[in-house]
Each structure stands twice: as C-alpha cells, then as structure tokens.
From TrEMBL:
Coiled coil: none annotated. This is Rrf2 family transcriptional regulator. GO terms for molecular function: DNA-binding transcription factor activity. GO terms for cellular component: cytosol. PROSITE patterns: HTH_RRF2_2. SUPFAM superfamilies: Winged helix' DNA-binding domain (SSF46785). It holds the Pfam family Rrf2. It comes from Candidatus Blautia faecavium. InterPro entries: Tscrpt_reg_Rrf2 (IPR000944), WH-like_DNA-bd_sf (IPR036388), WH_DNA-bd_sf (IPR036390). It comes from the Bacteria.
Amino acid sequence: MQLNRSTDYALRMLICLSRASGAVSSSKLARAIGVSPRYLLQIGARLRDAGFVHVGHGPAGGYQLSRPPAKISLMDVIMAMNRKGNVSVLPDKRPSKEDFHTLECIYRQLEKGIQRQLESITISELSQTECEESDHMRGVGLPMH
C-alpha cells in the first residue's frame, strides 16, 4: 500500500497537535508540516469532518485534537483521508487462477496483518521521540535506523 501525500500531511498534523498544549494556528501548523496554508485548510476540514480535530476561530483559535491521541489509530486516519473508503494492500483484483491460490491466500494474510498493524499504532505512539524504536516496527521485521 502506498499512502498519499494528503494522508501523510494529515498524520503529521495530528502528531503536531498531540504535542501541543493548546490550540495551534493554521499558519503555524502549515509551517511545521511544510504545506501551504490553503492545503492545510483542506486537510484540516477532512480531519474535522472525521471527528479528529476541533477548529476554533478568532485570536485564540486554531486546531486542537477532538479526542485523545491514544484513541486515534493510523488506520482511522488512513480511512478518513482515503476517498475510496477502503484500504487495500492486495494487487489489483484479477480473475483467480487455480495455480495461484496459495499466493492469493498469502496476499490476504498480509493484508490482514498490515491492517491489524495500522489499527494498533496510535497518534500518541507516533508523537513520541521520532528516533525511538517502536515495538510495532520490530514486530513486523522492519529495520529501524
């Protein structure tokens, strides 16, 4: 699976908000994650509609998380930002051939495993020191640098 740029920025935005002690202005968030203020507003609207953020207006306004970061999983954000409404890691659906049944079973197992992994990683975990090794990453055999 490949994450699109909007989903990556949405995750970065939520991480920034989880580290903040109060509301964060859209201009400050845009600078922090490296997007234009206009693009940030689009991402913010999607996150607001999904119930992840609250937007306050006025001089003390800005973005804040609507729920604890430990209650927002990577999968939650991916699903909210994915316009198709689903996340698939399998190759394009093709007519099944009997000769490749085992391979297709492996693909389904991989997809389930990846989805479980995405559901288990939260914004809270992602907001920790970025160089910190994660038990989740070691558990799936990903090299940590």
